[in-house]
Task: structure prediction
Amino acid sequence: MPEAALTRATLKTPKAAAGAGIVFSLLLIIAFGLLRISLPADPLEPGAWLKTSVKTVALALNIIPFSGIAFLWFIGVLRDRLGQREDRLFATVFFGSGLLFLATLFVAAAVIGAIILAFAEQQQNELINSSSFHFARAVAFVIVNIYMMKIASVFMITTSTVAIYTELAPRWIALLGYGLALIILFGGYYFEWSFIVFPLWVLLISTNILIDDLRRSR
Result:
C-alpha cells in the first residue's frame, strides 16, 4: 500500500510542475500588465497615478504573492523531476537565481505598496516636491528593470543548460531560452515590455512538460 501511494505521488510530480509554472506565468503576466498600464515608465514622474490607478496597482500587488508561491513550487517539483541527473553546480545557480528572482520581485512590490500607503492621501503638489516619493519610486524602478531582469536571465540560461544536458525539454526551447535571456540581460532596460519575456518562457516550458507527461500517461 505505501509503495502504491509513492508511485502515484511520483507520477503526479510532472503535472504539478507544469501546473505551477503555468499558474505562475499567467498570474505574473496579469500583474505586470496591470502595473505597466498603471505606472508611468518614467521613475521621476510626479505621481499622478496615485490619484487615478491606486486600485489597479493594489490588485496587481495582491496577485504577485500568489505568483511567487507558484514559482517556488515550480522550482521544487522541477528539481524533483530532474532527480539524480541534477548537477550540483547548475543546481546551485538554478535554485539560487530562482530565489533571488522571487526576493527582488517581492521587494519591488513591497516598495510600491509602501508608496501607496505613505503617499495615497498626499496632495499632488506635495508629491512633486517629495524627495522620499521620488527615491522610493526610483528604487522600485531600478530593482525591477536592472536586478530582477538580470536574475531572471540567469535563471533562464541555467535552466536551458540543464534542459539540454538532461533532456528535460526539447533543445529548441533551451536554445530559445538562451536567446530570450540575452535579450532581457542586455536590452531589458531599453524595451518597456521585456519583463513579459520571462513568464512567457516559463509558460512555454511548463506547457511542454505537461504535454510530455500526458503523452507518457497514454
Observations:
- The chain has a mean pLDDT of 81.
- The helical segments are 2-38, 49-52, 54-82, 88-119, 124-128, 131-166, 171-187, 197-217.
